[in-house]
Write a structure and sequence with these properties.
The complex is a heterodimer of chains A (about 350) and B (about 325). Chain A has twelve helices and twelve strands. Chain A is an alpha/beta fold and about 350 residues long. Chain A has two domains: about 130 residues, Thiolase/Chalcone synthase (Peroxisomal Thiolase, Chain A, domain 1, 3-Layer(aba) Sandwich), CATH 3.40.47; about 200 residues, Thiolase/Chalcone synthase (Peroxisomal Thiolase, Chain A, domain 1), CATH 3.40.47.10. In chain A, helix 4 crosses helix 11, helix 6 packs across helix 10 and helix 7 crosses helix 10. The longest helix of chain A is centred in the N-terminal third of the chain and has 16 residues. The radius of gyration of chain A is 19 Å and the shape is globular. By secondary structure, chain B is mainly beta. Chain B is built from three helices and 19 strands. The longest helix of chain B has 11 residues. Chains A and B meet through helix 1, helix 5 and helix 6 of A and strand 1, strand 5, strand 6, strand 7 and strand 11 of B. Bound molecules: zinc ion.
């Protein structure tokens, strides 16, 4: 296996509305920031991969427009996933492993403000048994939350505490959409209150990956990807044990998480109740600094929020604030699919 | 800088899906008020049924009938139903394990309030009055105080006139905002001017502007008025009438390089017989009263442009 690291990360400020910007106009500044941070130009990048969904803003082939912001002509080596950018990062990591590239630009963006994301996300569900009922994203998360409460894994007060801790941490995150104390609020879909749900907003993120000595040349302290894996649950909601996340557990095992403790974890848990599931699956205790960025409860640009978890974890390693960090991304209803990566700073590896 | 524009945008599309043998039997069964599950090799009964075992991926086809009554395994109270959800008044989302099944089905439960709903409560199917072979043939669940009924019974899955496909309509409503570059372009068009943007790096002028230079990957910011005259770089003759388009065929659709632009845009050519349109033809826009963009382009009467003048824009 080649040593591959995240050497640069940038994200937009995440906002409820960005009416004055098209998707490429929103995205371009973060592309420039990661390129500037490494001194690379588009022509130096071996592979470019993005993650987004046309359904969010209702724009067909918006990802091809977004490519304008990369400078994709003459044609570059490029790919796209209709998923969170964390999976675009996975594809780029594989591409580098094959030896076909030494560097990769990975980006993702989501503009939820033009549409109604709760309804839009119903269109990712199975079209036979679920789609016709239009069960929205909060409703499905609430079913999972109630299952956790019934199982004695959490209660509404504990969920409120997760919300409070996340938004308090986000007060130090200049990019967060929601920071500082937020009231628990009314039920959106009981047992989940407004405070248990992520903000709806727009944003983008980008990272640069590099292999071996290239990474060392581009970044004083690269965040080495020691392991990365993603797994999926059975697609029938009623088949799954909603209080558990065996896919997260398996991905974490294969990523090598359990070999040594981590000091930091960036979890992609858009709903408070999902952090409860992930903590169980990942065996995280109070010694681990969970979501110092505030996590998806502070900013949840759909399709970018998972990539941002990888970026936030890497940035802490870049700054010397973490030696070994876990990053997690999720996709689909009730933590349907999960990606786990373990990142380390160089000195921790020796 | 004009205000960012916005307009309603409706995306409407049907999901048209064919059904395999298992889903066909299940949905046809609902039409006949019969609930079918599928049995795995391990002996579990999955409702709603799937075609492949979620654990072993083995193809599974052994159908079995389960009861229309069941037990709530988890629930969530929905105080504000959204359009197209099963009930228009507040209801509980529920996962229900039907009697005889080992897995749960998602649906709505009609109940007076959240205090009347709990995990473990007994419910039964309320059938829709009109059933077509869809998950919505179950109107919802309703509370039911009976004991667990029925053991799964083998079923051959054969019905007369089986449902073999579904069409699920979908509609999503958006508020479209074109962003900075396109807002400025549309704003200029409303004053019958065509304004592109120049790349600060390679100096190409893009019309319509998309906000970024696809070659350089930088924002295009300098506004440049182009045209109004231009040159036909290439064209085609449309011989088939498009649905809902009030235009006689044949007509000519062309790429037009407006003077000062480095990218051709496309538009209809009028005011000249279709078989006389040619590469290099000089054209100008024709605006109609109240139109938000040129209706078409017509010949200016100038001599044709030299091929060398536009060959880079082909
Ligand atoms: Zn340029």
């Amino acid at each position: 296996m080649r040593d591959v690291a995240i050497v640069a990360f940038a994200q937009t400020d995440h906002l409820r509305h960005t009416d004055e910007l098209s998707e490429v106009e929103m995205l371009m500044p973060v592309l420039h920031r990661v390129l500037d941070a490494t001194g690379l130009r588009t022509s130096d990048i071996g592979f470019t991969c993005s993650g987004s969904s046309d359904y969010l803003a209702g724009r067909a082939f918006s990802f091809t427009m977004a490519l304008d912001g990369v400078g994709a002509y003459p044609p570059i080596s490029e790919s796209h996933v209709e998923m969170d950018g964390a999976w675009a990062l996975y594809e780029a990591w594989v591409k580098i492993q094959t030896g076909q590239a030494d560097t990769a630009l990975v980006y993702s963006y989501g503009k939820s403000s033009p549409g109604t994301v709760r309804d839009v996300l119903t269109r990712q569900l199975d079209p036979y048994y679920l789609g016709p009922l239009w069960p929205d994203s909060v409703a499905l998360a609430a079913l999972q939350a109630q299952a956790l409460i019934d199982a004695g894994d959490t209660d509404e007060a504990a969920l409120a505490e997760i919300a409070h801790r996340s938004r308090t941490a986000a007060a130090d995150n200049p990019h967060a959409q929601v920071g500082g104390p937020v009231p628990a609020g009314d039920y959106v879909v009981r047992p989940l209150r407004t405070g248990d749900c992520p903000p709806v907003g727009d944003g983008a993120a980008a990272v640069i990956l590099a292999a071996g000595d290239t990474a060392r040349a581009l970044c004083p302290r690269p965040a080495w990807i020691r392991g990365i894996d993603h797994r999926i649950e059975a697609h029938g909601l009623g088949v799954r044990e909603l209080t558990e996340s065996p896919s997260t557990r398996l991905a974490a095992t294969r990523a090598g998480l359990f070999r040594r403790p981590v000091d930091t974890a960036e979890l992609h848990a858009p709903f408070t109740s999902q952090e409860v599931v992930l903590r169980k699956a990942l065996g995280l205790d109070d010694s681990v600094n969970v979501n110092p960025s505030g996590g998806a409860l502070a900013a949840n640009p759909v399709m970018a929020a998972g990539l941002i978890r990888l970026g936030e974890a890497a940035a802490r390693i870049h700054r010397g604030e973490s030696d070994r960090a876990l990053a997690h991304a999720t996709s689909g209803p009730c933590l349907q699919q999960n990606l786990v990566a373990v990142l380390e700073g160089e000195s921790a590896h020796v | 800088m004009p205000e960012a524009l916005s307009a309603p945008l409706v995306v409407e599309f049907p999901f048209t899906r064919s059904l395999g043998p298992v889903q066909s039997a299940f949905l046809t069964g609902l039409r006949e008020r019969t609930v079918l599950g599928v049995r795995t090799a391990g002996g579990k009964v999955l409702v709603p049924p799937v075609e492949y075992d979620p654990v072993t991926a083995e193809e599974i086809r052994e159908l079995t009938e389960v009861a229309a009554t069941g037990t709530v395994t988890t629930w969530a109270w929905n105080p504000a139903p959204r359009p197209a959800q099963p009930l228009a008044t507040p209801f509980a989302w529920v996962l229900v394990r039907l009697d005889g099944a080992d897995t749960a089905l998602l649906h709505a439960l009609a109940a007076p309030g959240p205090e009347t709903v709990r995990t473990g409560m007994r419910v039964r199917i309320r059938w829709a009055a009109e059933r077509t072979g869809a998950i919505t043939d179950i109107a919802c669940f309703e509370p039911y105080d009976g004991e667990e009924t029925g053991r799964p019974a083998p079923h051959d899955g054969v019905f007369t006139d089986p449902v073999t496909g579904i069409v699920t309509p979908a509609r999503l409503d958006y508020r479209y905002t074109p962003g900075r570059a396109q807002s400025a372009y549309l704003d200029a068009l409303s004053r019958q001017r065509i304004v592109g943007e120049r790349c600060p790096s390679c100096h190409k002028v893009y019309v319509p502007p998309r906000g970024a230079c696809p070659t350089c990957g930088v924002a295009t910011t300098e506004r440049v008025e182009v045209g109004p005259r231009g040159t036909v770089t290439t064209f085609c003759i449309v011989n088939i009438k498009a649905k809902n388009l009030d235009m006689d065929v044949p007509y000519v659709y062309a790429h037009i390089a407006l003077d000062g632009a480095d990218l051709a845009l496309h538009a209809r050519i009028g005011g000249i017989p279709y078989d006389q349109v040619r590469m290099g033809l000089r054209v100008e826009p024709v605006w109609t009263e109240g139109g938000r963009h040129p209706d078409h382009y017509r010949p200016t009467g100038e001599p044709d442009a030299d091929y060398d003048a536009y060959k880079e824009l082909l």
